[in-house]
Amino acid sequence: MITVTDVSLGFGERVLFRDVNLKFTPGNCYGIIGANGAGKSTFLKILSGEADFDRGEISVGKDQRVAVLKQDHFAFEAYSVLETVIMGYPKLYSVQKEREAIYAREDFSEADGMRASELEAEFAELGGWEAESQAGQLLFGLGLEEEDHGKAMADLDESKKVRVLLAQALFGNPDILLLDEPTNGLDLESISWLEDFLIDFPNTVIVVSHDRHFLNSVCTHICDIDFGRIRSYSGNYDFWYQMSRILQRQARDQLKRREEKAGELREFIQRFASNASKSRQATSRKKVLEKLDLENIPVTSRKFPYVGFKPDREIGNNVLRVEKLNFTGGTGSESSGAALLRDFSLQVNKGDKIAFVGTEHASKSAFFDIIAGEKKPESGDVYWGQTTAFSYFPKENSAFFNSGLSITDWLRQYSPDQDETCVRSFLGRMLFSGDEALKPVNVLSGGEKVRCMLAKMMLSGANVLILDEPTNHLDLEAITALNEGLCAFSGVILFNSHDHEFINSIANRIIEILPQGGDRPSAAGAYIDRMMPFDDYLGDDSVKALRAEACHAGRLRI
């Protein structure tokens, strides 16, 4: 259990939060939410002891172990994957290393024997004999095959390092688990496994996440950082969202009533201030007006960008036909030289909003690059309909931001209306107002770049949108705005995302690319295609059977 008493933190005149009083108890999972910069990660660091605060007290239950998801992905380069995971339980790891060092001595003494006996008992009590097995189970659940377990961390790519560090935090049944964006870098299968793990986890979990489905699945409470305070609500994210909308509506109604009252008072004062018989009443109303506080009704620190895609023309019946695509290579070292697409054919129809899912992430990105004209297949054809105009959001967008152009000048390149006032107005709706719109694009954060790319797409007037993991780097408010914008879009969408709620709310068709290779040629280049929402797809028995068959033929984990 963690108890937070009267904790405050500020930087100069800016107050992150003040007078925070919370209690985090075992058996519950607490989701920490708030706008970008509200202090979510800082609050986790305060709870873990990594960051100081101005005043107040943080107390942790006696002898309780706190595990934290590490953010330094290069801190364990010299260690093996299994060893890195076991290091998540420092006491066990220390006993293990001392035990190994004693047994490695050539001049093994009687004192060494006594100490070894003590260490053996402690090692067994801490679960040392099961440690490697438990670490292996965690790694496999998070998508790392057994062949990776003995590798050095330095030999893993970034996505696998993220998973190892998550396994490290989960290892050894910690009393308190602090997780900052644990779903980053995970695919849908690994996220589902993590959800199940945390649902069954008996101790205290405190998590920061932008994944709405994840927060809904695992959280018993939501702690909202807003108005410079942290308030705890029972229930998951959806419950908090509905409650917050009610509270905001009540605050707006209260402000409106106060403004109406103030207007009535001002009118009376103006009419009768010079009237001798009414002067006392006017003076009295003036005092009431001065006490009527119109400034202290809280306004949320959350900012929602405007995301709306309006096609310039209606799309026809012939949208996209892909015939027998073959492509080898792709992005990232692990896909180099691999057959990513093999005789891959697909028909896209008017009204389709297709989510591409599954573990073959390089294949999905390669497919998007090919149909967008960014890459050429070794063989096969892509036919776009005559009425189609597409706009592409690639997973890797850094090439768009290498210049020193301001955001305004950068976006003007893609705007039909070159007037600066028009471009600045559009940027303001995307939360780039005032001097923000003058920042050079080569210094933008990941989330700012995504908002720029979305603004570029909105100006295109396209009736087909291709989006490769567009929710990466976005906060909950921006994800919600994008989600609503795509739901309202009248054209065709082809997209890939690790956000369960995003997929389920947008897609009406699911395509899962199955593993390439395997002993049976039928598995190569195959896919599952269903006209149904994502949740229905996950529960469909025929889909499960096809995925099981692909598991035997290729590399798919189920």
Q: What does this protein look like?
A:
With about 550 residues, the chain is an alpha/beta fold. The chain folds into five domains: about 1-65 and about 175-235, Rossmann fold, CATH 3.40.50.300; about 80-175, no CATH class; about 240-290; about 320-390 and about 465-555, Rossmann fold, CATH 3.40.50; about 400-460, no CATH class. It is about 40% helix and about 20% strand. The protein has 19 helices and 18 strands. The chain has helices at about 40-50, 80-85, 90-105, 110-125, 130-140, 145-150, 160-170, 190-200, 210-220, 235-270, 280-290, 360-370, 405-410, 420-430, 445-460, 475-490, 500-505, 535-540, 540-555; strands at about 1-10, 15-25, 30-35, 55-60, 65-70, 175-180, 205-210, 220-225, 230-235, 320-330, 340-350, 355, 380-385, 390-395, 465-470, 490-495, 510-515, 525-530. It has a six-stranded mixed sheet, with helices on both faces. A six-stranded mixed sheet has the order 14-15-16-12-17-18, with helices on both faces. A hairpin with a 2-residue loop joins β1 and β2 (about 15-25). α3 (about 90-105) packs antiparallel against α4 (about 110-125) and α10 packs antiparallel against α11 (about 280-290). The longest helix has about 35 residues, at about 235-270. It starts with a strand and ends in a 5-residue tail after the last helix.
